[in-house]
């Protein structure tokens, strides 16, 4: 199967309200361009340097999503062009994104990453840390970021019951946050959950954005 065929097949299977992020990390530009030619405009990368290099070479109507764990000192390199940062997992990181965005007089959309998996290797905020961040005075003062939703990764397992439980947990947190009044920097509308192996379950549990790599581009 070609990248184009894979992409069109996946797109046809997604409900209209679900956004597809094509996870293009480690893939060469010609592969991305094949997906681009098939109509894909949202690409997800997990390393800032690789994303910058691809951004420089590729058409400028692409939305670039940072989906990997992000270090504060790398933020400045992608601020000029990044569309959405998925993995914001600390107030420190959010503060740096806000600071760098201010320099460019722009607002950067961010998702707060919540730790829902039973694996310690996954990053993310606990529910208590999430509430603490959103209630903090520092967050309220930020004018150059906007929290547009949550992101989470399920445990890497074949146990669909466990995966479903974790995704349902994230949806419940999202629903609770959605009941709070929106502000200039707080407009939750996106739940980014689900990857190649588990995105149908994620969609059943309420995901509005899926991050799919190997099912489009093939294995690494």
The total count of helices amounts to 10
Shape: globular
Distance between the termini: 15 Å
CATH topology value:
TIM Barrel
Pick out the low-confidence regions.
Answer: none
Question: What does this protein look like?
Answer:
The chain has 220 residues and is an alpha/beta fold. The chain has a single domain (3-217), classed as Alanine racemase (TIM Barrel, Alpha-Beta Barrel), CATH 3.20.20. Helix content is 41%, strand content 20%. The chain contains 10 helices and 8 strands. The protein has an 8-stranded parallel sheet. α3 links the parallel β2 and β3 (63-66). The relative contact order is 0.15. The mean pLDDT is 96.
SSE diagram, text form:
Elements: H1 3-13, E1 19-23, H2 29-37, E2 42-45, H3 48-57, E3 63-66, H4 75-78, E4 82-88, H5 91-103, E5 108-113, H6 127-135, H7 137-141, E6 145-151, H8 160-178, E7 186-192, H9 199-204, E8 209-212, H10 214-217
Parallel strand pairs: 1-2, 1-8, 2-3, 3-4, 4-5, 5-6, 6-7
